[in-house]
Amino acid sequence: MMSNFLLDTETLVYDFYSDKLSDKEIYNLIENQKKLKWLPFVILPLIIMLRNSLVALSLNIGVFFYDMESKISYKKLFNVALTGEFVLVLVGGFKIVYFLFIKTDYTLQDIQQYYPLSYTSFLDIENIEPWLIYPLQTINLFEIGYFFVLVYGVYKLLKNKYLKSFEITAISYGTGLTIWIGLVMFLTLNMS
Q1: Which of 5, 99, 116, 165 is the most exposed place for a label (fewest CB within 10 A)?
Q2: What is the per-residue pLDDT across 19-56, written as a single tens digit (0 to 9) for each?
């Protein structure tokens, strides 16, 4: 949302579609995007709530199986997941700073495919199969930071050994993340 405001995305859209669509079609596309610019403000909170609900659910399942004597409410685990969300917000800020100050000559595809501090930053993304891009983008420092926020939150809630909290989080959140990545890969393969 902020990237559309700070980065010149209209010009990028025009450049991207200039050889595929007529000027009038591109103009209509940009106008339709302007009319729907309120949509991310509605959808993004829903996505965040859904993602945090799924993370809290996976942590809740992990706590249930690993530490059955502890009664931790789903709400507390949801708050841990929501706290970790602030690490993921840094991704957008880092991306905006990158395109404003570091790589000032960029395309629409550059903005869409760039994920800061990820494994794909070291690869030529043009030569990667589309279904592999998301899993490789998931290997990043922000995801590792998010994981350790979850570990620390579980550690504080359970008041147990840090290593046990690490294990609970790794198994429960790791399983959920693996299922999610598999789903995204499956959908990408079917849509291409």
Answers
A1: 5
A2: 887 778 877 777 887 787 888 888 999 999 999 999 99
| Angle CA 4–7–12, to nearest 5 | 90
Distance between CA atoms of residues 26 and 108, nearest Å:
14
| Token duo for residue 116 | 């800061």
- Of the candidates 55, 57, 59, the one whose C-alpha atom is nearest the C-alpha of residue 67 is 59
Structure tokens, 167: 């294990």
pTM equals: 0.84
Burial group, residue 103, by CB count within 10 angstroms (0-12, 13-18, 19+): exposed
> Are the beta carbons of 13 and 33 closer than 8 angstroms?
yes
